[in-house]
Structure formats: C-alpha cells, structure tokens
User: What shape does this take?
Amino acid sequence: MLPARDSLGMRFCVVRCDHRKRATLRGQEMLVLLQHGKKDLIVKNARLMLIDSDAYTSSVLMEDLARRGYVNVKAVANPLELPALLESVQPDMVIFNYPSDQPESLSVCTIVKLLAPQTAIIAIVAPGPALKTVRNWSQKTQCIDVLIEKPLSDERFFMALRDLLQVKVSLRELQLKSERLSRLVPEGAMSAVESGVDSEAELFEAAVLFTDIRGSSQLIREMPPRSFFKLLNQTLSAQSHQIRQHQGSVIKYTGDGVMAIFRGMGRSYLALRCALDLAAASNTHELPFGVGVAEGLVLAGLLGDSSRAGQRRQYDVIGATAHLAARLCAMADSGEVIATRNINAVAKISSPSPRSIGNLSIRGFDSGIDCVAFNPSN
Assistant: This one.
C-alpha cells in the first residue's frame, strides 16, 4: 500500500492488487468528507444577527460574512427593534460590534440573553480601556460567550464564529435526539432514567386502562398496509390525547392499543371517566375498539437484560391489576367499557348507567371477578 493524497488534500490508500478494496476505502473517505460537508453547510445556514449602530462597519462585516457563505444574517442598527426581531429571527448567534463611546450599549447583550437564552453572543471590541470594560462586564454578567479584539485583520473572528456555531449545531442535534428519544418512552421511564435508579421496581396503587382495536387482524389483511398504519396512528394519537386530558400516563402502545395508568387522588374516577369518553368516541373512528379498566397494586420499573451495563431495557408496569385490565379489555365489545365493580364503587359513575355482568372467570385468577359494563355510545 502506498499513501497518496487526493485533490482535496485528504489521505487515502491505494491498494494495487484489489480494486474493490480501493473503492471501499475511497468510499469511506468520501463519506467522511460528505459528513463534514453537511455539517459545514448546516453551520453556513445558521441564523445570525449583527448588532451594529455604525452603518459602514455593519455593511463591511455583512459583505465579509456573505463572502464566506453566511447568507442568513439580519443586521440590526436600532436596539429598540431587538425584542421583536429576536422573536421573529430566532438567531443561533448574535454578533455585537461594541461602540467604545457607548458603554450603555452593553445592555443589548442582556436583552438577548433574557429573551433568547440559548443564543450565543460574540462581541467585537477595540483594544485598550474598551476591552477591559467589556471583559469586566462580561465576567460579572456571563452574557458574552466570546470576545474578539479589533482589528479583524486575520481569521480569528471567523474561526471563532465557525467553532462556536459548530458547538451550537452539535448541541442542537443532541437536543433533537433527546426530544425524539423522550417521545419513545413513557413518563415513568424518563423519571427512572433521570433518578439513576434502574434496578428497583416501584410498588404503588394505580388504575390501569387498556384499549384494543377490534378486528385488527382482518382489517390489516383487507386494507393497504400504509393506509392501515396511518389510521392506526391516528386512532392511537386520539386515545393518547384523551388519556393525557384525564391526567393519565401512556405506558406503552401494544400494537393495536394503548396501556395507561392513573395515579394519585381521584385516579378511579379519572380512569373510568377517560375510558367512557374513549368508548363513546370509538364508533366515530374507522378502527373501533374496546376498553378495560381495573385498579390495585402494580409494579413499575425497567425490565430486560440487567446482567451487565449497556444492555437494552424497557419500562413497564406489571402485576395482577395490569393483567386483569388487559383481560377485561379483551372481553369488551367495540365501544364498550368493562371495569371491576370495585373501581366503579369508588368512582361513583352513574351516567351512563353501569350494567352488571356478574362474576367473570378470568384466566390467572382463582375466583370470579365482579364486573360492570358501560355502553356510552348507546
């Protein structure tokens, strides 16, 4: 193998005897180059704001920024316009050209950090007393991220700008990933992760609710798969919204249904009221469903491979109460709620009128479970 250098200055290896290996190596290098290029493009497309009361220096700096590919730059000369512009532009970074004869102008940095705390600030300052003033003020207020000394005769300013924007882009990507991940796990799982307690189960009283779409196996055979998937997501979204409206927490999606829990004071009423509202809306959906509700002790925690660190685990709520609610849901017809008589005795819901269905034989329970049924759509 002989080291070589391509036209872009990137090293790669030439393997004379294996053209496929050479293509693979070059492809990997090009992938790295494309990834760097993509990040550089994102940096260049960042939203910038230039605060400069001097029209001449503002125009010169705007031209320099444009020449280096920064196209989303908003110039601000009047500080009174700043609050409205911060809201509309939502800049990733503010460049502040500090006028030495106007020390009071530092207040614009305070405004930026107050109204847009995630926005980075680069201050351009003349050497001497002005630099000392701004440095002391910055140390006290922590409002300025980077100080650049004039004149801007070298690349220091643009290097600092690029580096700070790259940090900003990386933080934004991490935040987006975190937000996406937070949408994939229930609230209880996030609490467990944040607390750092991943080996102990929590035992508590809760009302457990299950929904299940009726005839989903037949529907997925009859409908185009993408159409069914879209309808399923719409139905689950509507159910989740209703659960949150009743102060419940979605624990998981069971493929064609939802499992949720209700904790704290009033959980019996909230869970049963939520179940009734869900069932009432069931027949308005193209994918009708039944609902089951039970109340009692449950265990919640992270389940999975705990033999060593880094293995996949998931948050779940288990126990006899969860099992019972799931079984009652499986027995409910479309638009129907089946709940234990005990939970309705606490919730005291009389409208719609509950219908006694006696002691139901539930697999896993030694004796029958006294239950009631509601048909709110009727």
The radius of gyration is 31 Å. Residues 2-42 form one domain. The chain has a mean pLDDT of 82.
